[in-house]
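Subject: complex prediction, re-run

Hi both,

The earlier run crashed halfway through, so I resubmitted it with identical inputs.
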Amino acid sequence: MLNLNRLRPASNEGYLAWVLVVVIVTFSLLSDQFLTLQNLLDLSESYAVSGIFALGLFVVLVTGGIDISFAAVASVVQYAIATLAIHYGLTSPTGTILLAIAIGAVFGMINAILIYCLRIVSIIVTISMQSLLFGMLMWLTNGTSLYDLPEWLVTPLQVLPFNVGTQHYQIGLPLMVMLAVAGLTWLLLNKTHLGRQLFAVGGDQESARRIGIRVGVLHLFAYGYLGAMAAIGGLVQVYRVGEVVPNALVGGELDVLAAAVLGGASLNGGKGSVGGTLMGVFLIGLLKNGLNLIGVSNYFMNIVIGVVIVVAITVTHYKKRKETDVGFA
Amino acid sequence: MLTKTKSLKMKPLSSKSGGNGPRFNIDSTTLSLSLLLVLVIVGFSIAMPGRFFTDSTFMSVAFQLPELGLLTLAMFIPILSGGLNLCIIATSNLTSLLMAWVFLTWLPPQASLALQAVWLTVALVGAMILAIAIGMLTGALVAYVGAHPILVTLATMTMVNGIGIYLSRGAAISGMPDIVRYIGSDTLLGIPVPLIIFLATAVLIAVFLERTRLGKYIYMSGSNINATHFSGVNTHRVLIAIYVLSSMLCVIAGLVMMARFNSLAIILGGTDPFGGFGRVTGVVLSLIVLQVISTGLNLLNVSPHFSLAMWGAVLIVVLALKFFRQRFMQKRASRISAAKARAALP
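This time it finished cleanly. Structure:
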């Protein structure tokens, strides 16, 4: 049964989906290279790391917090793992991955402890943490990159290869990891007790506390989760580029944040969805890729991206604004 | 963030420059920041006997402070309102680009100083108009669309940056007239001109925030924008004014510098990032503290990355101390009131 009413967007994600459709159709008409399987696969591979970060950040945003330090955490984890592997003979892949996730989670939890126990606003703590971690990393390493990485980490794998006609394609590890992370985050937020509690804390922390939710523990979990995701994203980045550059990731935090918020997560907490977050990430990705393919100069690209973000913000927020006249979310 | 080139000038300077706000009654933030400043200066003086406590150190601080300070003020006003303006660097870059373009196209090479001053005014007015346009766009998006300021200013930042890069093709512009160089590097009565501009702006902003109706509205909007709205204030107009003002400060910052910023300085100065509180005095003092730290570390020949890490650490420690102090005061207050209640019992 075809019901046209279903096409009318009811939520932020709905509007965003329409923006995405418009972008995709426009670029498909303007460039015949855009809507090819290879291009889309390449695109999703290069934005997989941003996607993993954004999903982790989304969990923190749901609780009403914010974390800017994840890129610095990812860089520190990358460097620590690479150093351990090169100089201290850390060889076991499973051990390495678990260790990386543990380091990331610990950094995230340090943030959570500072935020919760000292009642400091999360953005300040995490900006300080970012400066601290990144400054120490650059100072101790002198900014040198590491290339001599263990084989198992940087050897390209064939993940889910498939053929269309005579062409050979593969889904690729980064995209698989991102999808797995997305699935995990979705399950966590929508199908578990913990997930509902996270949303409750984001909705109103005091109310959540009074109905018996342990807010401190949930903060620990949310920031720890982002730390773990930062570690995974960092490892995927190493796998993709085959080197560890200490300052490669830091500086892109705001783009990830913008993508997550564009996807419907509210900086006041309690709102958003996994699908919306991914749409936010890929909207920016599709835009950059499409503008490149239709030959827009790099100099002009930022203007277009800025305008599109403004339009997207207006489209996704306008209806909400008509409901509540003041404040911002 | 700290990779500025230092400009050491050997000229005398009266080293007292803090606490220029209009409020002379000292609150706890001002006091603790002054203490921190004294501590830092004494620490560095002991670490580097005869090298740190010199005129040149303070001259260097005085020349570097305005760069950061004006941008911090531009960030300070949106933060007061519970928002954030990520677009300030982009705005000051674009407006200074416009000013440079005015000078290079219209100003004859051998112009007299008076003519240069006239064109400087023209350029400033043009840059202000551009800044007002940017600010109104940002403010309108925040007020009428209702998106979070971080998101809005991220978008405008991308756009404004894009326009700047598109127009300049990423190239640096040189060949400024004498008067601009004078503003950047000369002294008036022994005080660097940038510092005079910064202090004058800081005093103006402080007076504006404390003594005018709009200033009070800005504080109110930061405390509770809904309550402000329902008490009859047109909060949409206040929000637009906030971002216009912030962008206009960027023009002054763009005139004085094109260096890089660190907006962290604001929070150290006692501005509650939830909005609604904070004084210009605190911001200026905390800027001085951070600048002295970075100059001192620079003199010690420490890597700028280490200074960055130190800024992060200082910030966390200061915030932690503030929290523990507050809790101590609260406990003491409740103890005192309990004792009073007991004493009042018959």
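The domain at 10-316 of chain A is CATH 1.10.3470 (ABC transporter involved in vitamin B12 uptake, BtuC).

- K.
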